[in-house]
Design a protein that fits this description.
The protein has about 220 residues and is α+β, with helices and mostly antiparallel strands. Helix content is about 35%, strand content about 25%.
Length: about 220
């Protein structure tokens, strides 16, 4: 069970079981390169800032009382990297598949190892004193920031996720969360979730996937 306590957002969910995490899948790598090339050909950094999907995600952050120029949405950070010619990070097949979906839609995607959190989960503002170690070893102080949290506390965010639930080589069951602006069409959000599920099956050998939308 996942509930939304913040305004301006709807969530796409993808659950994948029996995944096999690998460093690289050549077909996925080629797909990533092709999408990056298309985005670089279409946008400059200045043009990117004026696109509807970037503006809509920034508006979503402002609805949470977050300054998107100070705390950049993960999707915008990836897109800026791509248009600057740096390409997507190559992490592993699960993370790479999600990052690819994020630059295609312009929406932040989060990935969580289902073995390291427990239901129920809420998408809410961080409380005073809450923090976690972010991926990349930076400590994130979370008061007032948008977070996914279980009974143990926060573990994810559309800015930067935690090391507690990060995808590792031995991860076998994965939850992906797509943080979409409330203005996004539900059909588009479901297509994005189903596309990610298909990539988990093709590139990560998932044996079972399920997609859903959570509304406020």
């Amino acid at each position: 069970m996942l509930t939304i306590e913040l305004p301006g957002v709807k969530l796409g969910l993808v659950e994948a079981s029996d995944v096999r995490v690998q460093l690289v899948h050549e077909d996925l790598a080629r797909e990533m390169d092709a999408v990056c090339e298309g985005i670089r050909a279409r946008y400059s950094v200045e043009q990117l800032a004026e696109t509807p999907f970037v503006r809509d995600v920034r508006a979503m952050f402002r609805a949470w009382d977050m300054d998107p120029s100070k705390y950049r949405p993960s999707s915008e950070a990836l897109l800026r990297r791509v248009v600057q010619g740096k390409g997507l990070y190559r992490v592993n097949t699960v993370v790479d598949a999600a990052n690819l979906g994020s630059i295609e839609t312009g929406w932040p995607y989060g990935l969580y190892d289902r073995a390291h959190y427990a239901l129920p989960v809420a998408f809410r503002h961080g409380k005073p004193g809450e923090l976690y170690e972010g991926i990349g070893r930076r400590t994130w102080h979370l008061e007032g920031r948008p977070v996914l949290a279980d009974a143990q506390g926060p573990f994810g965010s559309p800015i930067s996720d935690s090391t507690r639930t990060m995808i590792r080589e031995n991860s076998r069951s994965v939850l992906a969360v797509i943080y979409a602006p409330i203005s996004a069409a539900e059909e588009a959000l479901m297509r994005a979730a189903e596309q990610l599920a298909a990539r988990f099956e093709r590139f990560c050998f998932a044996q079972f996937t399920r997609s859903a939308i959570v509304l406020p």
